[in-house]
Write a structure and sequence with these properties.
It is a single chain. It contains 27 helices and 25 strands. By secondary structure, the chain is α/β, with parallel strands linked by helices. The strands form 6 sheets. The chain has a 6-stranded mixed beta sheet, with helices on both faces. A hairpin with a 4-residue loop joins β18 and β19. It is globular and about 95 Å long.
């Protein structure tokens, strides 16, 4: 059953008239009211803030020397390299932030050091090395004669590798924005905005922006050396900032605004005259013009990220972004586009497989989704995990055991995640038992403000390697530990959430009508760009609307070779206007649009290719009244008699017209929705066979809150019974065991498997079981893990029963409403 989305509308506080008039100054063609409401909601509440937010020329960016002593140390070391003509290596990362950061240093430091002779760069292979410094790469750079490594978007926690480089006579300057080390590493300098307080205007800088600040400091220190202006790097900075999903406030917003302007100016030039023909060709391939942040987040960013996901080695992307050879850039852009087409195909396939596996999960009792498959390519798991997390409202972890049989201990070490699958960050290598070499590797994504990094870190004893931050993490673990990890991380999150329920949530910022949609509103909302974390794209709630002229088509890849995804196109109408407004819904068929009146949440956009304003549908549902009517019609026939005395439950419920009617009564507390759903369907089937509300079949849920024994006690009871049966040579039925121990049949099977590791043999005789015991110490480790699985299964079952003892009747009614459709 699909999860029911929760829709919320941001609380609106009417801004004062002076503020509305101040905003209207920037939107002379419209009232400015909507933009004023959004800006006021988001904490922009005085003239100075407003001016600096909208007009980057009024903003005062921070000096690169705000980084203090560390920046001075970095510049002094670079000056030493400049004076003694030392060879420098840039050590980057393979995601869009890391690639653009490498490109900024390649172009920026390239003004001071001869490229390819004095200056080289190194991008780790995503599929072989993962994030961060590694000794083998350092060895290779040492052989090339490098005396200084400048990292970008990585390196803060690579203390052992930094020490190793120092032993080889190589100094390291770290520029990064991820988790800080516990102590300052032995580096020449470490430039990381995480050392600033959260309120500082530099705190949210991404890897590319930190790299830019280093180059900016060098430009100021050696002002007469560089041939090209520093501002030529800003388009690359904007691409990395927006693609990395950092909070666009302070200098981040300023740099993104400046960079988008440079990006657009360059794209308007003929291809042969562009400073970055590779970027221009990528924009052409994705039919963008570079003037919108979405051109990066939906266009350039995914294409740059796709290369390492598919090929592992993304080194050529630096050449694509920095070369001025038009022919070569066109070739590299087409290779990038092919990688992105392949990425979309793999992502689509994996997403379909994950969706199928989700149907086997009971999401009502699942706090963290953990799924694994031997065929999933690791490169796209983070993307799919992010989609599933958004759709379900639950943190999602997807694991691949692809090639696990060949990895062994060494392969696991090479492929273990050194940081979040996208974000680098802190990493923790853990001991790997040589007797169990099969590893699963995966990515995790969070939602609903759940601190995913801390959640995963708490299970470090079950992991081989992990790393990340609150929103994203990468991890690897023994395949045999997956069930234990799944049970433990679910239990941990449930305990921390308490009575809080995780549900997929869509939040709208403004309520508008179809008549409001169009150029004027678009220009108002554009004042907030560039949008990102902390300043999301405005979501518009349109109520009591309907769709017309809907159609869909399969979208092919750029060479027309393979169907990649679908999109529905439509016209939206409501009572506010006689005119319809165009829109589209990515990844959906027209048949998924509701018939009749409905509510929807959408973003307003401008389609550069079609040269029209349109909405991009985010969520849609039938109007609230129709859903409410369905629930009201079912509510009287589902009676809640839980946790009442037996005498009260025994009374026959009466129907609405007060005549006695035999109700279906459930007295055993279920452990999953399927058990309850079976009763609901039976009740509805009886109701449909009758006519009139007074003849509808009633269903009484009448179970009591279970009184659970501790899982350890249940295990000891099971072992005691097994020993007694072995000693007396008596037979027992599964029903007798279940009644005595108080667990489900499925959990009993897990317990029987654990008994076998302790030396018990369980054999069938007709409908009974015969248990014999031959103690065996040789499998003690396996027995401990098997017992842990049984205890986890008992805890999970007890949690589920506790859930059904207290789940609101409204939730059960919602299930019945869905199943009645």
């Amino acid at each position: 059953m699909p999860e029911q989305q929760q829709w919320t509308i941001t609380a609106t506080e009417q801004p004062p008239e002076w503020f509305i008039q101040a905003v209207k100054h920037y939107t002379p063609a419209s009232s400015g009211l909507y933009a004023a409401q959004l800006l006021w909601q988001r904490g922009i509440k005085d003239r100075q803030q407003l001016t600096a937010f909208i007009n980057h020329k009024a903003y005062q960016p921070a000096s690169p020397f705000e980084f203090g002593q560390e920046m001075h140390l970095a510049i002094a070391r670079l000056q030493q390299a400049y004076n003694t003509k030392e060879k420098i290596a840039i050590w980057g990362d393979f995601d869009a932030d890391g690639i653009t950061a490498t490109s900024v240093l390649w172009d920026g430091l390239g003004q001071f050091f001869a490229q390819n002779t004095q200056l080289v760069y190194y991008i780790p292979n995503r599929l072989k090395e993962s994030h961060g410094l590694n000794n083998q790469g350092i060895d290779n750079l040492a052989k090339e004669g490098c005396k200084l490594i400048v990292t970008c978007d990585t390196g803060s926690t690579n203390v052992e590798e930094i020490i190793y480089a120092k032993q080889l006579g190589i100094d390291v300057i770290v520029t990064d924005h991820h988790t800080l080390p516990a102590e300052r590493p032995p580096v020449a300098a470490i430039i990381n905005p995480r050392y600033f307080p959260k309120e500082h205007q530099l705190f949210n800088l991404s890897g590319v922006a930190v790299a830019y600040k280093l180059v900016e400091a060098l430009y100021q220190t050696l002002p007469n050396v560089a041939k090209y202006p520093l501002e030529d790097l800003l388009d690359l900075v904007a691409v990395g900032l927006i693609a990395d999903l950092v909070q666009l406030s302070g200098d981040c917003r300023y740099l993104a605004q400046m960079g988008i302007q440079r990006l657009q100016e360059d794209f308007k030039q003929p291809a042969a005259a562009r400073r970055r023909p590779g970027v221009g060709r990528l924009l052409e391939l994705c039919q963008k013009s570079g003037d919108r942040p979405t051109d990066i987040s939906f266009g350039l960013g995914p294409r740059i990220n796709a290369v390492s996901r598919i090929q592992g080695d993304a080194s050529f992307c630096v050449e694509l972004l920095t070369s001025r050879d038009v022919k070569r850039c066109n070739e590299l852009a087409e290779v990038t586009e092919l990688a992105n087409a392949r990425r979309k195909s793999l992502q689509k396939d994996v997403q379909a497989q994950v969706a199928q596996k989700l149907t086997q999960l009971d999401l009502s009792t699942t706090s963290v989704i953990v799924l694994e498959d031997a065929q999933w390519p690791a490169g796209v798991l983070g993307l799919v995990a992010g989609q599933i997390a958004q759709e379900t409202g639950r943190p999602t972890i997807l694991l691949s055991t692809e090639g696990a049989g060949e990895q062994g201990s060494r392969g696991a070490e090479e492929q273990g995640s050194r940081g979040a699958e996208e974000q680098g960050g802190n990493s923790s290598p853990l001991p790997l038992r040589p007797s169990s070499p099969l590893l699963a590797r995966g990515s995790a994504r969070s939602v609903n403000s759940v601190d995913l990094y801390q959640l995963v870190k708490e299970q470090a004893h079950l992991l081989h390697r992990f790393g990340g931050h609150p929103f994203a993490a990468g991890l690897s673990l023994l395949v045999e530990n997956i069930p234990l990890f799944t049970a433990a991380i679910n239990q941990q999150l449930r305990q921390s959430l308490g009575s809080t329920t995780l549900t997929p949530t869509v939040q709208a910022d403004l309520t508008v009508t179809v008549a409001d949609l169009g150029k004027e509103l678009f220009l108002e909302l554009k004042l907030l760009e560039p949008c990102g974390m902390g300043n999301p794209v405005p979501k518009l709630l349109i109520q009591n609307c309907w769709f017309e002229n809907s159609w869909h088509r399969n979208q092919q890849d750029w060479q027309g070779k393979k169907v990649q995804y679908i999109k529905a196109e439509f016209d939206i109408r409501d009572d506010s206007s006689r005119s319809a407004f165009p829109g589209l819904w990515w990844g959906h068929y027209k048949d998924e649009l509701p018939v009749g009146r409905c509510d929807c949440i959408a973003e307003l956009d401008y389609n550069t290719f079609k040269k029209r304003y349109e909405i991009r549908l985010i969520a849609v549902r039938s109007s609230a009244n129709s859903a409410l009517n369905t629930q009201l019609s079912l509510t009287p026939f589902i009676l809640d008699l839980r946790n009442q005395e037996h005498s009260a439950r025994a009374k026959r419920p009466a129907t609405a017209n007060n005549t006695q009617h035999s109700a279906l009564i459930i007295e055993d507390c279920p452990t999953n929705w399927d058990d309850l759903r079976m009763w609901l369907r039976r009740c509805l089937a009886i109701s449909r066979s009758t006519s009139g509300l007074e003849n509808q079949q009633q269903l009484a849920i009448a179970w009591s809150k279970p009184k659970h024994q501790p899982p350890n006690q249940i295990w000891l009871t099971l072992v005691g019974i097994a020993k007694y049966l072995s000693r007396t040579n008596q037979l027992v039925t599964r029903g007798q065991l279940l009644e005595k121990i108080g667990i489900s049949d499925q959990t009993l099977l897990v317990g029987i498997k654990a008994l076998k590791y302790l030396g018990f043999t369980v054999q069938r005789q007709d409908r009974s079981l015969q248990i014999t015991w031959n103690p065996n110490d040789s499998a003690e480790n396996l027995a401990d893990e098997a017992v842990a699985r049984f205890l986890a299964a008992v805890r999970e079952e007890q949690f589920q029963q506790q859930y059904f003892a207290e789940v609101p009747l409204s939730t059960i009614v919602a299930i019945a409403s869905y199943d009645s459709k």
